[in-house]
Amino acid sequence: xxxxxxxxxxxxxxxxxxxxxxxxxxxxxxxxxxxxxxxxxxx
Length: 43
Hints:
The protein is mainly α. It is built from three helices and no strands.
């Protein structure tokens, strides 16, 4: 499992409570722009 997959799962957990679908999609698109080594800092 990559960090991106891990963070997508966390976004799914958060989004069910606090984010609408557009916000969730935007968060995932932003994370996809970064390399795995930088994702921890971005998230």
